[in-house]
């Protein structure tokens, strides 16, 4: 294992300025960024389908990084990380475990969105001792009804985006009413705030392999979510076309003591549309001593 993660002399609390770092473990060189004060339990961010480090909303990361050590990374085969993307969610979770433990962390909080939320569930079920708290957003459980349709929805919206010269996330993450369109444009604009050290884009093959893994997850045997005993916050919009909002309610029922927040008039990217409200909720959840 080797890494170039010597701690910076000053605390960086803006994701736009977080230095690009790498760590090699298990034959894979992982690209990552970290920010916020070190020393406490870090919050590890697990990103969505087709996303790289450049796809995290700074309006969510930055408020969390004000008081928490935040780590975001590209899993194997994604963005600037080396290797091939695994074709199962469980293997992706093992890579996340390899990365986190190679950094020297034995306890972390997990913040996950969409595909990241699926990886987070597999991770906490296999390695419960690693995770203190869990935030699952825009996600669903193994065997969740409709998850195997993600590929079809994604390709359809990619075509719509191409025809209108838009970012596919404007269609996939947000409602197509005036409110949703405005939130979508603002979100996409925020993703361009980082100017230097941008990440490599995901390859078509990596994207297709992720879709295959999601379909397999959707058609797999449901996991026993009652085994998740960590404090869990679940959030989504009320009109998620990618991972149906009902699946957030399903996870809430199956994970004892979990908290559920559903944002009105919003889609898969509800947490980005309501970033002010959600970031406050997330920080309060992480800071709660229970």
From TrEMBL:
<dbReference type="InterPro" id="IPR050471">
    <property type="entry name" value="AB_hydrolase"/>
</dbReference>
<keyword id="KW-0378">Hydrolase</keyword>
<dbReference type="InterPro" id="IPR000073">
    <property type="entry name" value="AB_hydrolase_1"/>
</dbReference>
<feature type="domain" description="AB hydrolase-1">
    <location>
        <begin position="42"/>
        <end position="272"/>
    </location>
</feature>
<protein>
    <submittedName>
        <fullName>Alpha/beta hydrolase</fullName>
    </submittedName>
</protein>
<dbReference type="InterPro" id="IPR029058">
    <property type="entry name" value="AB_hydrolase_fold"/>
</dbReference>
<dbReference type="Pfam" id="PF00561">
    <property type="entry name" value="Abhydrolase_1"/>
</dbReference>
<dbReference type="GO" id="GO:0016787">
    <property type="term" value="F:hydrolase activity"/>
</dbReference>
């Amino acid at each position: 294992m080797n890494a170039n993660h010597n701690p910076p002399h000053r605390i960086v609390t803006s994701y736009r300025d977080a230095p690009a770092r790498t760590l090699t473990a298990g034959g894979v060189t992982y690209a990552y960024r970290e920010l916020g004060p070190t020393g406490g339990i870090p919050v590890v961010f697990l990103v969505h389908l087709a996303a790289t480090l450049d796809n995290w909303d700074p309006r969510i990361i930055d408020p969390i990084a004000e008081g928490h050590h935040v780590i975001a990374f590209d899993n194997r085969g994604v963005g600037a990380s080396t290797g091939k993307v695994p074709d199962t969610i469980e293997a992706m979770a093992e890579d996340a475990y390899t990365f986190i433990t190679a950094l020297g962390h034995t306890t972390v909080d997990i913040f996950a969105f969409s595909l990241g939320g699926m990886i987070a569930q597999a991770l906490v079920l296999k390695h419960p001792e690693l995770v203190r708290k869990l935030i699952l957003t825009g996600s669903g459980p193994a065997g969740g009804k409709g998850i195997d349709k993600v590929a079809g929805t994604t390709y359809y919206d990619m075509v719509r985006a191409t025809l209108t010269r838009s970012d596919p996330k404007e269609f996939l993450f947000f409602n197509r009413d005036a409110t949703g369109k405005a939130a979508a444009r603002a979100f996409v604009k925020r993703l361009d705030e980082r100017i230097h050290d941008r990440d490599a884009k995901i390859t078509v093959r990596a994207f297709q392999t992720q879709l295959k893994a999601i379909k397999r997850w959707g058609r797999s045997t449901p996991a026993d979510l009652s085994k998740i005993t960590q404090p869990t916050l679940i959030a989504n919009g009320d009109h998620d076309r990618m991972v149906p909002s009902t699946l957030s309610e399903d996870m809430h029922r199956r994970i004892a003591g979990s908290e559920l927040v559903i944002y009105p008039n919003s889609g898969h990217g509800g947490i980005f549309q309501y970033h002010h409200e959600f970031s406050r909720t997330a920080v309060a959840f992480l800071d709660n001593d229970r």
